Amino acid sequence: MSSDSAPESTLPYPPIHKDKKFVVLSDWDGTITTRDSNDYLTDELGFGREQRRVLNFKILAGETTFRDSFREMLESVVANGHGFEECKEELRKNIKLDPGFKEFYRYCQTTDIPVVIISSGMDPLIRAVLSNLIGDEDAAKIEIVSNEVKIHPDGKWDIQYRHPSSGFGHDKSQAILPYRALPSPPTIFFFGDGVSDMSAARHADVLFVKQKGDGENDLAAYCKAEGIPHILFEDFGRALGVVRRVVDGQLTVKEALALGKA
Ligand SMILES: [Mg+2]
């Protein structure tokens, strides 16, 4: 990564898409899926929702880092004796896709817009759930920039952060900034929902923030507090309407953001 302040990455990046007019970067958990898989593990197999929300609010308030509290959440799952394979199975059974994502993904494929998943989750869990939801063929094609897992000989496991020196664990801005440095940068659409997306929020051209029925709209709260322009969306079907109009030249980026809601 080129920026002076960029944290060192312990994991490789896929090559950036140099000659595209538009690129979609999206969070995975709670954005492409209807429920966050790591929240699911923490709530159902770890120390539970109440304690998780206390940590989420501390992150929003700047009292702790995403990196440290997310590790704590996952440690509570391991402490309760749940192996990584068991967690994977549990997620394959319970995590569902945003109802509009398949159509959105199909649109991006036919219009030559790369879709890259930018996640603070762990790659093997994302692949397992993705294969289950959109099929092995499409799942194998989607690029994922995420964290990893370390599984120990005794069956215990922990998260391996992409950027261990960053309080974000995975600083998602590092997936956006190389595009900014291109001679003719593409328009970047970023999709997110939660505290793991705070590092990306101010760097996208068009930021879509998911609005969910469970009341956990932490990224929306953050953007509101920080005055970061964004478009609220309920599902990818709604977001597609706006993306299509920008791609077709009916809306400028500024006009799209001014909509406020998809
Ligand atoms: Mg999320």
Structural commentary:
GO terms for molecular function: phosphatase activity. InterPro entries: HAD-like_hydrolase_phosphatase, HAD-like_sf, HAD_hydro_PyrdxlP_Pase-like, HAD_sf. It comes from Wolfiporia cocos (strain MD-104) (Brown rot fungus). The chain is an alpha/beta fold and 262 residues long. It has eleven helices and seven strands. A seven-stranded mixed beta sheet has the order 4-3-2-1-5-6-7, sandwiched between helices. Strand 3 and strand 4 form a beta hairpin. Helix 1 (37-45) crosses helix 3 (66-79) and helix 4 (84-94) packs parallel to helix 6 (123-134). The longest helix has 14 residues, at 66-79. The protein is globular, with a radius of gyration of 18 Å.
Shape: globular
**CATH C-level category of the domain at 22-34 and 97-153 and 162-259:** Alpha Beta
Number of DSSP-assigned strands: 7
Unique ligands: magnesium ion
- The CATH topology assignment of the domain at 22-34 and 97-153 and 162-259 is Rossmann fold
Helix count from the secondary structure assignment: 11
Overall pLDDT level: 95
Report the order of strands and helices.
EHHHHHEHHEEHEEHEHH
What kind of sheet is the major sheet?
A: 7 strands, mixed
Strand order of the largest sheet: 4-3-2-1-5-6-7
Query: In angstroms, what separates the terminal alpha carbons?
Result: 33 Å
Keywords: Hydrolase
Pfam families: HAD
Protein name: HAD-like protein
GO molecular function, one term: phosphatase activity
